[in-house]
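Predict the assembly for these two chains.
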Amino acid sequence: MIVRTICRLVVPFVQIFGLYVIMHGHSSPGGGFQGGVILASSFMLLAVSEGIDELRRRFSINTITALTSTGVLLYAGVGVLCLVLGANYLDYGILPVANPRSVGALIIEIGVGITVTAAMVSIFHDLVTFE
Amino acid sequence: MNYLHLVITGLTGMLLILGSLDMPDTGDPMSPAASHVSPRYIEQSLKETSVPNMVTAVLADYRGFDTLGEAAVIFTGALAVLLILRTGRKES
């Protein structure tokens, strides 16, 4: 009962920290891979403290499996967008925003973070529910 | 038959080690990586990419194609575990 209460209090803060590490990969150590694993560990903390059925009740496993491919699709989609606009593949200089190379790197880091989070939760779920 | 596998594996390992003896020493300031590529990244990454973190600039901008391959490898790993371990049986 103490463990359940404390874990319920801590999970939102771990998620905020994971998102912070992803978004601040430009100025401080971090980036997509590191922040993705931290964010996935918050879901694993929920599964460890409340039970795997609680995790399956809150986030359907089909959604998480579909999210693994969405991150890679976002990454490749930015590359194809640069190709459509006229430059080489993954050549961010052509995007019509201010500081295009910085914005392009941020979008691909978000894509990598989504893929890593969903892949870690999916592997954890498969290992736990196999008998 | 197991001895044949051991001999082939040992020969391949020895060939790889023999190939790595020609590489420059670790931390050699005169190696091609440290004299052509690193000064360019260190001096011009902030001007060209406007990303303050040099590691993220190299990972996401200069070598963005390799990072795409890394993300695809993580996706393939999750897919392989899914194919082997997820049987689809309903457990209530």
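The interface with chain A takes residues 48-53, 55-57, 59-61, 64-65, 67-68, 70-72, 74-75, 77-79, 81-82, 85-87, 91 of chain B (CB under 8 Å). The two ends of chain B are 48 Å apart (CA to CA).
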